[in-house]
Amino acid sequence: MEHERxxxxxxxxxxxLLGFTYSGGLLRHEREVHGxxxxxxxxxxxxxKHCKRHTEQGFTRxxxxxxxxxxxxxxxxxxxxxxxxxxxxxxxxxxxxxxSDDEGRASKRKRMSVVSQNEDLPEEDVRxxxxxxxLDNFELKRMWEAQREEIGEMKQxxxxxxxxxxxxxxxxxxxxxx
Length: 178
What we know:
With 178 residues, this protein is mainly α. The protein folds into two domains: 1-41, no CATH class; 43-171, no CATH class. It has five helices and no strands. 7% of the residues are buried.
């Protein structure tokens, strides 16, 4: 069953689009793609630091972010990542986002030591920092797990190569008849 799509975008670059089934779909398209009607809503960024969607172009819909995390990062437990990511400052607002990874980690440690010494900071800042650290921890665990799997695969390949080499050496004869 084909739906009628009476709401069309009038921009030339969107001529190939089929259209939208309701006016809200067209309005959202115009807002997000063409910056009309006040421009895109607040962006939701990928919590994975090394992803281009972490800083460059976020998502305007939570469902799209969840789908991105599932497809691109192969994350099964999307809700735990998002729970840790809620209320984290927008990427680009903290100075460490533009530093190298080592400098970024060092500045985070420095910030946390300052936070622990200065209890006058607003509770929101402490919560945001805690959530950011949880995200970093989650990402490190994920990377560690991926490396562990890769090492296991490499060990298996090495074992197979060693076995094949051993078999070939057993077949080889010094007189060249092997």
